[in-house]
Write a structure and sequence with these properties.
Elements (H helix, E strand, L loop, with lengths): L1 E6 L7 H15 L3 E6 L1 H4 L6 H17 L8 E4 L5 H10 L4 H5 L2 H8 L6 H4 L1 H10 L5 E3 L5 H18 L10 E3 L29 H9 L18 H9 L2 H13 L4 H27 L2 H30 L3
Parallel strand pairs: 1-2, 2-3, 4-5
The protein binds tryptophanyl-5'AMP.
């Protein structure tokens, strides 16, 4: 299967990105033809400092490599290294009804958060459809917040196929892969973990920072001895992502029985989290000291990605009669 997904370089990656997306990237690269990219064109809708955008873009590749993605197996590229993307986005935008974009929650959310209502933000899902369709992707590993974008991608592909595809169709229809246990990773305040809410724990936060942030995770005022509901507790939600099955089951039981204090859970969660990312933290330090290696990964991946993209773009151009 062809697997493809992207991550915006809009700052350091957090554990929502890790459990929602990156962990799936690692699992899926083994048996599939995987393409993972840094969505820098998309990040232009929120990052307006060129130096910072370059730094974040480099940092996302470093993070993917540090977490163990293998550039020999997966193609780890940067979106803007494949200019075919924006050409396909235009072709797709000519068959995309305004109404589909108007109903997009992520556009409405971002405007509500104070981002200016610009065309790029509005047309964001069309660019994302181009990212996906350009590589004939079958499966797109993402968190729940991307589900609507995947639906639009399929709708746009079907529309283009209907208008131009004839019998065989031009684009392959992709499916999302969303893990039930980590579809929406909670942040410190119990809402979805997201940079724009300022409630993240970053994958490479220093251990002391991780401990401090974990202490801030919201909890209710249930006394230590009282029974608690693990299903509605964001602290338990985060704990269960890091704990092994046995420890998680035991904690679940102790919550329901009563007698466990949130302070104890937080201390244990911080320990588990720090230990989990320790090997990646060391690899990251090595990669940061070797930017040439990271640049070499980027440029060889760009060549591979472009070759795949070119063939699909030519198919789309021929179908609609340009060129
Ligand atoms: P982005 O950069 O916001 O997030 C990257 C990935 O992390 C997932 N994610 C989460 N999953 C669970 N819980 C959370 N709290 C959480 N926060 C983030 C996201 O669902 C995503 O999978 N539009 C995309 C980037 C993109 C893309 C693509 C993705 C551009 N083109 C093509 C797939 C295919 C985005 O903004 O993700």
């Amino acid at each position: 299967m062809r697997v493809l997904s992207g991550i915006q370089p809009s700052g350091p990656l957090h554990i929502g990105n890790y459990f929602g997306a990156l962990r799936q990237f690692l699992a899926l690269e083994r048996e599939n033809d995987a393409y993972y990219f840094v969505a820098d064109f998309h990040a232009l809708t929120s990052v307006r400092d060129p130096r910072l955008l370059r730094e974040y873009t480099h940092d996302v590749i470093v993070t993917m490599l540090a977490l163990g993605l293998d550039p020999e197996r997966a193609t780890l590229f940067v979106q803007s290294d494949v200019p075919e993307t924006t050409e396909l986005a235009w072709l797709l935008s000519t068959v995309t009804p305004m109404g589909w974009l108007e109903k997009c929650v992520s556009y409405k959310d971002k405007v509500q958060q104070g981002l200016p209502a610009e065309h790029g933000l509005f047309a964001y899902p069309v660019l994302q459809a181009a990212d996906i369709l350009l590589y004939d992707a079958d499966l797109v590993p993402v968190g729940q917040d991307q589900k609507q974008h995947l639906e639009i991608t399929r709708d746009v592909a079907e529309r283009f196929n209907h208008v131009y595809g004839g019998e065989r169709g031009v684009f392959r229809l992709p499916k999302p892969s969303i893990l039930e246990t980590s579809a929406v990773v909670p942040g410190l305040d119990g809402r979805k973990m997201s940079k724009s809410y300022g409630n993240t724990i970053d994958i490479f936060d220093e251990p002391a920072v991780m401990r401090k942030k974990v202490k801030k995770i919201v909890t209710d005022s249930t006394p230590v001895e009282a029974p608690k509901n693990p299903e509605t507790c964001p602290l338990f939600g985060l704990f269960s992502l890091f704990a092994a099955a046995e420890e998680r089951a035991l904690m679940d039981q102790r919550y329901r029985q009563g007698g466990v204090g949130y302070g104890e859970v937080k201390t244990r969660l911080a320990e588990l989290m720090i230990a989990h990312f320790e090997p990646a933290r060391q690899r990251r330090a090595e990669l940061l000291a070797n930017p040439d290696h990271v640049r070499a990964v980027r440029s060889s991946a760009a060549a591979r990605a472009r070759a795949t993209a070119r063939a699909v773009l030519d198919r789309a151009r021929a179908a609609c009669g340009v060129g």
